Amino acid sequence: VFIMKHIIHDWDDARCSKLLRNCRAAMDGQGRVICVDAVLPPLGDTAATPAKLLDLNMLVSFQGKERTREQWEQLFADAGLR
Hints:
With 82 residues, the chain is of the alpha/beta class. The chain has one domain: 3-Layer(aba) Sandwich (Rossmann fold), CATH 3.40.50. Helices cover 45% and strands 15% of the residues. It is built from three helices and four strands.
């Protein structure tokens, strides 16, 4: 099991995909990747949430970002994870 807590949001999609592909390559058929990060509300949701503030902080500080559920799913799919 690979547990990444507050790691993936530090990086852009290309680097995240590389990190996740490396995890996938290192695990056997029963391995798991667990990411503990915020999930943004769907695009267009105007409610204020802590995740939105964290998203701005990540962009300014690390050129990273928080992601919506759909963005997470795409990131995992691009890395060959389900």
